[in-house]
Amino acid sequence: MDKERFIENITEQIKEAQLKLGYTRETIRLYFPVRSLCDLVRTEPMEGKDLINLLEREFQDTVLGRLAFILCKGDRIEVRISAAGAEYVHGQVADPPFLAGIIELFRDNHCLTIEEIKAYFAKFSENYVCKKMEPGTDFDYVLYFVDGKPDPWYYCVRIEMGHTIYHRFAEADYRSLVDEA
Asked: With contact defined as beta carbons under 8 Å apart, do 155 and 101 qualify?
């Protein structure tokens, strides 16, 4: 089981929310499909209840505090991080430069072109990919760094009626999104 990878993923998601919305000392709830969570912690596929039992044993004491896991309908697991965990991320985890910058880029310009987004990626590394996505995926482009540095996420971009948005996915979740399209 890859505990460090899981805590890093949760920390990055909390940091993204705090950069976008600001910090509030409150409980955070993140939702994962069971399949995605198995992949994230690098365990064999299993049923949701079995995964929760395993996670509850493994994540009683973390830098984010004790994590709670709740099986939701639709084969999703809610991961609950205490207010103390949110406070830890706010006070102890530095803002990742790439993430902070891309949030600012999208916040300051709602009509970004793909060329402007590519230029932002290129400021951090020329070793990135920008691909036009297949019809039916709900997105127009995907951008990511080949070696996962400085950012391991896959950024799916949609440009509609002059308005540009992004959603970021872990690689396995992106691959699943593309496979389902």
From this structure: no
